[in-house]
Design brief:
This protein has about 500 residues and is of the alpha+beta class. Helices cover about 30% and strands about 25% of the residues. The strands form six sheets. Strands 3-2-4-1-10-9-11 form a seven-stranded antiparallel sheet. A six-stranded antiparallel sheet has the order 5-6-7-8-12-13. It has a four-stranded parallel sheet with strand order 17-20-21-22, sandwiched between helices. The structure holds guanosine-5'-monophosphate and magnesium ion. Guanosine-5'-monophosphate binds next to helix 15.
Length: about 500
């Protein structure tokens, strides 16, 4: 039976969904964990609100007191957690997660933290990253009798831990992580079987290449892990340090954190995701030892040095993600920074009828140009990245319709020519405009007078000291990559 209305065109709907401003690249995940206070889950809840930019599809918290408490749901942190469920999340150890997933229907079963009974006690896990060999590992585990409850890569780690045969949890986590490849900043909370009341232990782990950030903070007598330091600012926690690549930090109630290496064979170089600086992380966070704001502003300055624009009146940004780079560009070039677009922050995930007529509403709901400020002007338009080019094209049309004379588009990152395998939901190569078209072809497609991207050298120079993963720009992926099937219509494997 046809499930769609008569005039419903599936292909068009798929095309339209690609055009949504919310479906280009997607944010990955954010994690937060607290131990050592009866308010653990409340603090995690607050922490998650600051990490909302890293994932808006689902949110969840697990906490341990005598019992195990878990609440997860679809949507934003503020929608998922109400007073009535927050009050049930008792205990002095809690972890939480915000997530973006690639498939809609199965999403709630994939909401994290995942929770499972293991020989070492009840174990909850929250993951930011992507296990690149998850499919292989899952197949093997299924062949040996594992029954999976979700379709996430994260569940693989639970099975590997449960089956490890090791004497204790720490050894089991090490043995499990030795079998997976890819990116992971993980938080575990475990309720040990033999402790009075089943108190929790909190564990933070970062993969040996350190793709995704993970920081450790202190709040009075309690300890906090978070994806980004902006969570500490809200909680009033002091930032102690980053969890080092390949480090496992174990925190038991009332004790100081213990640190263990994940492996005896640590790689010589890290591979911090450079896209965190360009787009993902919040500018008020400090990651990989650098202020995101400072680096993003430097990206703008560098772009102005590399790709100046002649005879323009002002610099405008596509809010919010490129505002800081645009400020840097304006500063370096001596041009005024102007607000060109107002962005609505209240749109969220909205149903729009998939018809031709409704098509343009998607971007227009989110951005509106300030016509009075733009008419008759030649502008530099800064964006942090171009993915499929669909949003940029519409923004350009809106600017031209608002009377802009000339648009000189400048992008504060190099062309994205390949997918991310480490936790960012980038489209496949055939959907990445820079993998398919030359810069001049992209310029024409967007309808701008000139188009320039940041150079790779400029990007690395602006990101200062550090060894970075630049795979989506350079094609140099720092780990082995098992053959990956097409992302569309597949099970969700990213986080
Ligand atoms: P495009 O013009 O390629 O359709 O979209 C480019 C826009 O997508 C840029 O404004 C950039 O800030 C934004 N973008 C880049 N990465 C992500 C992401 O992971 N999630 C979302 N929602 N937008 C992204
Ligand atoms: Mg943007």
């Amino acid at each position: 039976m046809n499930r769609y209305p008569k005039d419903f065109k599936l292909n068009e709907a798929i095309e339209l969904s690609k055009e949504s401003p919310f479906s280009d690249l997607h944010e990955e995940c954010g994690v937060c964990g607290v131990i050592g206070t009866d308010e653990a889950a409340h603090l995690v809840y607050l922490g998650l609100t600051t990490l909302q930019h890293r994932g808006q599809e689902s949110a969840g918290i697990v906490s341990f007191d005598g019992r195990t408490n878990r609440h997860v749901g679809m949507g934003l942190v503020a929608d998922v957690f109400r007073k009535e469920n927050l009050v049930t999340l008792n205990g002095n150890c809690a972890i939480g997660h915000v997530r973006y997933s690639t498939t809609g229907s199965s999403s709630i079963i994939n909401a994290q933290p995942l929770l499972a009974g293991t020989p070492y006690g009840e174990l909850a896990v929250a993951h930011n990253g992507n296990f690149t060999n998850a499919q292989e590992m899952r197949k093997k585990l299924e062949q040996s009798g594992s029954i999976f409850q979700t379709t996430t890569d994260t569940e693989v780690i639970m099975h590997l831990i449960a089956k490890s045969g090791e004497k204790n949890l720490i050894a089991a986590i090490r043995s499990a992580l030795a079998k997976v490849e890819g990116a992971y900043s993980l938080l575990f909370a475990v309720k040990s079987k033999n402790k009075h009341g089943g108190e929790g232990t909190l564990i933070g782990v970062r993969d040996p290449l350190g793709f995704r950030p993970l920081v450790l903070g202190k709040l009075n007598k309690s300890w906090v892990f978070a994806s980004e330091t902006c969570a500490f600012d809200l909680l009033g926690a002091s930032s102690v340090r980053e969890v080092a690549p390949g480090e496992m930090v174990i925190i038991e109630k009332g004790k100081e954190p213990r640190s263990l290496p994940l492996t005896d064979r640590m790689p010589k170089k890290s591979a911090f995701c450079i896209f965190e600086f360009i787009y993902f992380a919040r500018p008020d966070s400090k990651i990989y030892g650098h202020s995101v704001y400072e680096i993003r502003r430097e990206l703008g300055r560098q772009l102005a040095r590399e790709a100046p624009a002649q005879q323009v009146d002002c610099v405008i940004a596509v809010p919010d993600s490129s505002v800081v780079a645009a400020i840097g560009y304006a500063e370096e070039s001596g041009l005024p920074f102007e607000v060109g677009f107002i962005r609505s922050h209240y749109v969220g995930r909205t149903f729009i009828e998939p018809s031709q007529h409704m098509r343009d509403f998607r971007v227009k709901m989110k951005y509106n140009p300030i016509k009075e400020n733009l008419a008759g002007k030649s502008i530099v338009l800064i964006d942090d990245s171009i993915v499929r080019g669909t949003t940029s094209r519409k923004l350009v049309r809106m600017l031209l319709a608002a009377g802009v004379k000339e648009i000189h588009m400048r992008i504060s990152s190099p062309p994205i020519t390949g997918p991310c395998h480490y936790g960012i939901d980038t489209p496949n190569k055939d959907e990445l405009i820079a993998a398919q078209k030359s810069i001049n072809e992209i310029r024409k497609y967007l309808g701008v007078t000139t188009l320039r991207y940041m150079s790779m050298e400029g990007l690395l120079k602006s990101a200062k000291s550090g060894n970075y993963c630049t795979g989506c720009f350079s094609g140099n992926y720092p780990t082995r990559l098992p053959a990956r099937k097409g992302a569309k219509g597949e099970i969700a494997l990213k986080c």
